[in-house]
Amino acid sequence: MEEAAVTDTASPKLDARIPDGPIQDRWDNHKFDVNLVNPANKRKYEIIVVGTGLAGASAAATFGELGYNVKAFTYHDSARRAHSIAAQGGINAAKNYPNDGDSIYRLFYDTVKGGDFRARESNVYRLAQVSNAIIDQTTAQGVPFAREYGGLLDNRSFGGAQVSRTFYARGQTGQQLLLGAYHALSRQVAAGTVELHTRSEMLDVVVKDGRAVGIVVRDLVTGEVASHSAHAVVLATGGYSNVFFLSTNAMACNATAVWRAHRKGALFANPCFTQIHPTCIPASDEFQSKLTLMSESLRNDGRIWVPLDPDDRRPANDIPEDERDYYLERQYPAFGNLVPRDVASRAAMRIIDQGGGVGPLRNGVYLDFASAIERLGKNTIEERYGNLFEMYERITDEDPYEVPMRIYPAPHYTMGGLWVDYNLMTTVPGLYAVGEANFSDHGANRLGASALMQGLADGYFVLPATIGDYLSDWLNTEPVSTEDDVFVDAVAAVNERTEQFLAIGGTRSVDHFHRELGKIMIENCGLARSREGLEKAISEIKALRAEFWSDLRVLGTAENLNQSLERAGRVADFLELAELMCLDALDREESCGGHFRVEHQTEDGEARRDDENFSHVSAWEWIDVDTPQELHREPLTFEYVPPSQRSYK
Amino acid sequence: MDLTLKVWRQAGPDAEGGFKTYEANGVSPEASFLEMLDQVNEKLNEAGEEPIAFDHDCREGICGMCGVMINGHPHGPQDGTATCQLHMRKFSDGDSIVIEPWRSTAMPVVRDLIVDRSPFDRIVEAGGFITINTGAAPDANMTRIPKEAADSAMDAASCIGCAACVAACPNSAANLFTAAKMQHLNLLPQGQPERYTRAVAMVETMEAYFGSCTNHGECEAACPKNISIDFIAMMNRDYVKAQFKNFARAGQA
Ligand SMILES: Cc1cc2nc3c(=O)[nH]c(=O)nc-3n(C[C@H](O)[C@H](O)[C@H](O)COP(=O)(O)OP(=O)(O)OC[C@H]3O[C@@H](n4cnc5c(N)ncnc54)[C@H](O)[C@@H]3O)c2cc1C
Ligand code: FES
Question: Which listed residue, A210, A534, A550, B43, has the most CB atoms within 10 A of its CB?
Answer without folding.
Answer: A534
